[in-house]
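## retry 2 of 3
previous attempt timed out at serialization; input unchanged, resubmitting
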Amino acid sequence: MSEKKKGKGSRVIRFLKWPVSIVGLVLLFAWTGGAFHAKTAAGKLDVEIGKPLPENAGTYTVKLEPVAAKVDVVGTVASEESVHLSARISAYVSSISASAGQSDKKRQVLIDLDSREMREKLAAANIQHKQSRTEYNRTLSLYKQKAATEQSLTAAESMYNAAQSQVAEIKVMLTYTQIKSPINGTVTDRQVEKGDLANPGQMLLSVYDPLNMRMEVPVPIRLIDKLSLGQSVDIRLDRPSRPFKGRVSEIVSAVDPLSRTQEIKVHIDNEKGDILPGTFGRIWVFEDPHPAVLVPSSAITLSGQLEMVHLVQDNRVVRRMVKSGPSFGKMIEILSGLSQGDVILIFPLKEDS
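## retry succeeded, writing output
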């Protein structure tokens, strides 16, 4: 065979490769898609999904029920009666009889300031007062005998009154050397030690009344109308971890422009006196009622981080993913996944198919 014929034959073979390859691919896709297999007619599937419904299984028919959404709002505990004690004179701390956490009684001396300088001033003022009184009495006697003028009597009387006022003023200032508790309470935030110099206006320690506590709660303005003065509310604190009852005692008539909240103050019944200022807590506010899908909380099971219920369909039990919302006693709201009329198991099956 000549070279010319061989070249012509190879070109024909290369030309036929592409159509043959395309036809092969089409046949392969048709085979994998089941084109060459017998198909099952609609409704003739032998495999059933789910599990058979057990006998005497407890079921619940989903229905819409009106509920009032319960919104939790967080706040911080503070004392209704809290006092910051500060110095009114400049003096060194000579003794301290109070420490943080210690209980004290009203008028109990908590801090003594050095009073030696003040007592020396009082002694000098008493001497001046005694001298001025003697001079006044002498001038008065002379005035009655018409041996002294009215002007000299007025001057002696003024000196006597000034000395008397000075003694009274120093006596008052001497009381400033003793820092007393103005209330029955608990000491907190002590900021001085013995030997420190206390200056006027400097805070030395704080005292709060542990029996009269309150929660200060910034409430979103959309919920503020759901609260009223004197209204009873439920409170839950981080510590102590037990429920409390509270009463709305104040609604601040100003809105925070940054958080769009309005502060309310809730009095807490704290007979044990074990609530500490600064404790984190929350209250609950109920919104207007709305129709909701409620199911028993026992019907929900967790699969990893997914919430599931066991749905009953044609006497078979299948799993369905749901999203839950707030709880209402033994019932819990389902936000998505179920509709009115659905039937679910009250207690899910232990083994899933």
